[in-house]
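Audit log entry. Action: structure prediction of a protein-small molecule complex. Ligand: pyridoxal-5'-phosphate. The ligand was supplied as SMILES and no pocket hint was given, so placement is left entirely to the predictor. Protonation state taken as written. Sequence taken verbatim from the request; no trimming, no tag removal. Recorded inputs:
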Amino acid sequence: MPTDFFALDGRVIPAAEATVSVLDLGFLRGVGAFETLRTYADGLPHLLGEHLRRIWESAAAFGLAPFFGESEVRRLISEIHRRSGHGELRVNLIVTPGENTSGVFGAERPTWVMIAREVHAPPAELYEQGVTAVTFAATRHLPTLKTTSYLVGKTGLLLADQLGAHEAFYVDPAGYVTEGVTSNLLVVRGGRVMTPVKDCLPGITKAGLRPVAEAAGLAWYECNLTCDDVYTADEVWITSAVRELLPVVQVDDRTIAQGVVGPWAKRLRPLYHQRCIAEARRDAAAAAAAAG
Ligand SMILES: Cc1ncc(COP(=O)(O)O)c(C=O)c1O
């Protein structure tokens, strides 16, 4: 029977024992950064180095300097994978300034948590049929960073829930659709992928999809997108570490193209998945070689 193990401050412990103080500034003030990644090829983390680079970039916004490294995280993931009995893992890394010890923001020792559970990618039907999304007028605070504050996003997801949609897209005050609450947004039009890069998270999945799309013959354009650009696209996709590339067939009350998953999404998704497996193996081999 698989069992969840998490890591707290670099120590693997049973999930039920992984608790954080109520005085933690992540809880008290919403100060924190996090990453979500997954494993492939039997427990090998995908692009761990990229995810660590991004978590430290996000944590720098609240003054936290890197205090653990890739080999340590790789070792923890490997131990959790072995002890838990899970197949592939979805790994969340969370860092906060730690327990509040003085004043409003004073803390002495940062908190570092790893939550690792069986990965649950969306069921195959969602990839075959596509999902729906809604737009909502809002701006994510510090949108190029991956902070733990999803309050604004939650308002969009409440709307999505009410309308039975999978994702909600932020629309900024200028009328541009920037990204999803938990994903990046891409559209295909006339043989080109178009995706915003302003005021959104520089997605690791999106970056990895680019060479796959270009090798398959799509051009790649980074540009602002209006709601109309999205509504009238040939294909709309969202990307994130767990979902990889998920096609969207309806946005608000508008059907995208024919309302069915487009040919590019069908073609690229398995190619991207294979690339992830190869990258996870490549990085594991490089880490093993570096460790001697
Ligand atoms: C706001 C936001 N944008 C984009 C993404 C996708 O990023 P990645 O592909 O690195 O998982 C996420 C992932 O959680 C996200 O929260």
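Audit: result stored. The chain has a mean pLDDT of 97. The pocket of pyridoxal-5'-phosphate is lined by residues 36, 179, 182-184, 201, 203-206, 239-241 (CB under 6 Å).
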